[in-house]
Amino acid sequence: MQKRESWNSHVGFILSSVGSAVGLGNIWRFPYVVGENGGGAFLVPYVIIIVGFGLIFMIIEFAVGRYHQTSILSCLIKTSKKFKMPGLFIVSVSFVILSYYLVVLGWILSYTIFILTGSFQDFESFTNSWLPVFSFVIVLGFSYGIVRRGITRGIEKLNKIGIILLISLLIPLAIYGMSLPEADGGLKYYLTPDFSKLYEPSIWSTAFGQVFFSLSLGLGILVTYGSYLKEKKSLVTSSSIIVATNSMVSFVGGLMIFSIVFSFGMDPSAGPSLVFQVMPSIFSIMEFGTIIGVTFFLLLLIAGLTSAVSLFQVSVSTLEDHAGYSKSKSSSIIAVLLLIAGIFSALSYSSANLQLFGSPILDLLDTYFGTYGLAISGIVFIVIITWFMDRRKILEQINLNSRIKIPDSAFSIIKFTFPALVILSILFTIIVEN
Ligand code: PHE
Q1: Which of 32, 78, 318, 406 has the fewest CB atoms below 10 angstroms from its CB?
Q2: Cβ distance 102 to 342 under 8 Å?
Q3: In sequence order, which residues have a C-beta less than 8 Å from that of residue 81 and are 6 or more positions away?
């Protein structure tokens, strides 16, 4: 058995967790969700849910990992052998999400190169070629290279460089956006609060989903990262820093997106079309479009890669800790499996146009795994922890070296309210979408 790795420094651990949290969800999802849900008023449920649930959920995940010194599956099996299947379920959800997340990252890589070389293609012709498959393989290869190097030499190093680079690209881009002549309209749309929306349940379930996705909760990522902690620094403080940084990046991401999009009279539409159609068309007409465009896509690429390696590590550490394989063997096996699983999503947006039940496979996986799978995985996780794990030991980990103490009653509250709220949120999502 090899000796368990640990983070080189506490800052490295914090930056890597920030890297996992900050992703595509901050740059395109958050701004759009805010604009659609009452503008500035959305920040009310968002902050309440972050403080009331997101933060405590994150602290619990880290505490469980640090206490057991092993990744999610083995943590659950240590609690009871009967949790092997639920554990495997959580790992599988994170694996499937990663398989198509890497495909989207491949698109971003291609667009970075398109803009850099001035060979811009619209999304349609891009997805009518084999480039999406090719770029998926490259991004997968890169992530594999990082994870194979291990926690300190791979993941920690990538995040130390990546997060600094990300912040130094984001801030100038936001300042530039806000200095555009028509930026005001965008900022008004983004931030003017419509408090009447607070009475709509959907704004609350949307905020819940956004917090969950954005903090990378419920997939065993943070348990895994916590399991490489040796130092007993306060988890309450570390998690607060991670959550605050993540929210700041989302907020500034919104300032940037809305000022640019409104300045060019475009629609702040959601998801892929914003990133791959609206933004590129703006870059093609704006002054300094090449440099702004490359900065924007590079920002997304870094944000996405640092999230991808955290998902990757969940599966790799499962093989290391549960099956006892070496790091290189585990990462190679997972990389091959990802290649096989991800190729279907990649092909669904390529010349092959692979579909299932009339939808691209990537979209189906995103709905069933990225939305419902993620929520169910969160419930399974929190139910096992709060109902079956040794509560005293976990609380001891949580409150170790912390000036702010989380009381025992917090567990009792979460035990009931959390699963109920997630189920309500899922039901709302289903009702609103149909
Ligand atoms: N938190 C990442 C984001 O905001 C996405 C993510 C979700 C990454 C779940 C890993 C796991 O984009």
Answers
A1: 78
A2: yes
A3: none
**Residue of 26, 90, 104, 214 to mutate, ligand 1, most atoms within 8 A of C-beta:** 214
Residue whose pair of structure tokens reads 């806000």 in the numeric block: 178
> Is the pLDDT assigned to residue 27 strictly greater than 70?
yes
d(CA 35, CA 188): 10
Q: How far apart are CA 379 and CA 385, in angstroms?
A: 10
| Residue of minimum CA distance from atom 2 in ligand 1 | 23
Distance from Cα 213 to the centre of ligand 1, integer Å: 5
At residue 18, does pLDDT exceed 80?
yes
Indicate if the pLDDT at residue 238 is higher than 70.
Answer: yes
| Measured distance CA(65)–CA(155) in Å, rounded | 17
Ligand 1 atom closest to Cα of residue 374: 9
Query: In terms of DSSP H, where are the helices of 81-156?
Result: 84-117, 123-127, 131-149
Write down the pTM of the prediction.
0.94
For a pocket test of ligand 1, which of 16, 20, 311 has the largest count of ligand atoms closer than 8 A to its C-beta? 20
Helix and strand element counts for the chain (H, E): 22, 2
The model's pLDDT over 302-334, given as tens digits with 9 standing for 90+, comes to: 999 999 999 999 999 999 999 999 999 999 999
Q: How confident is the model at residue 96 (pLDDT cuts 50, 70, 90)?
A: very high
Closest to 298 measured CA to CA, from 104, 17, 98, 109 = 109
Contact yes or no for 118/284 (Cβ under 8 A): no
- pLDDT at residue 1 tops 60: no
Cα(295) to ligand 1 centroid in Å equals 21
Q: Which residue of 307, 374, 381 sits with most ligand 1 atoms within 8 Å of its CB, as the best mutation to test the pocket?
A: 307
Phi/psi region, residue 39 (left: phi>0; alpha: psi -120 to 50; beta: rest), is left
Nearest C-alpha to atom 9 of ligand 1 is from which residue? Answer: 216
Residue pair 56/215 in contact (Cβ under 8 Å)? The answer is no
